[in-house]
Every structure is written in C-alpha cells, then in structure tokens.
Amino acid sequence: MKSKEEKLKERLRFALLASLTLGLAPFFPEPHLFGKIRWVAGGANGMEALDWFDLAWHSWPWVLLVVFGIQWIKSKAGTSVA
Questions:
Q1: pLDDT digits 0-9 by tens, 22-79
Q2: Sign of CA dihedral 66, 21, 32, 49
Q3: Which of 36, 59, 60, 69 has the most Cβ atoms closer than 10 angstroms to its Cβ?
Q4: How far lies 49's CA from each of 12, 34, 44, 68, in Å?
C-alpha cells in the first residue's frame, strides 16, 4: 500500500505531465492557453461558449499542478494536508 507521500508525488507527476502536454498544446506557433488568456485580458470580446470551454480545458492541468504543489509543500513542512 502506498503512503500519503508516495500518492502525493504520483499526483504531482501526473499534474506536471498534463500541464506540459495538454496545458501547453498546441506548442507552435504559441500555446493555446496563452492566446486565450490574452483574449480574456483584452476584454473577451467575441468569445463564445466553445472558447470558454477551451480555456477551461487547457487550464485545468495548471490548477491541479498548483493545488498538488501546495499540498506537497505543506507535507514537507510538516503541516496537515487537506
């Protein structure tokens, strides 16, 4: 049976892999997520439902990476992990 530390490391590796692949796809000419963030920062004029879904689709790996990273840091610091 895996310890909490091993499970957390496994989740962190998954989130990192997902962020570097799905989170940055397509890689050329620029990651899709960067274009969507720029579009939203510019007022999101003309964005349709599919564009918002696309933004969420390319963002979720980064959200997981941040959440699992915070949990990993807390576990290393000796505090409880939520």
A1: 989 888 888 989 999 999 999 989 999 999 999 999 999 999 999 999 998 998 887 6
A2: negative
A3: 36
A4: 30, 18, 11, 28
Can you give the chain as a three-state secondary structure string?
A: CCCHHHHHHHHHHHHHHHHHHCCCCCCCCCCHHHHHHHHHHCCCCCCCHHHHHHHHHHHHHHHHHHHHHHHHHHHHHCCCCC
- pTM beyond 0.85: the answer is no
State the pLDDT at residue 17.
Answer: 95
In angstroms, the Cα distances linking 27 to 31, 59, 73 are 5, 15, 29
In whole angstroms, what is the distance from residue 27 CA to residue 66 CA? 21
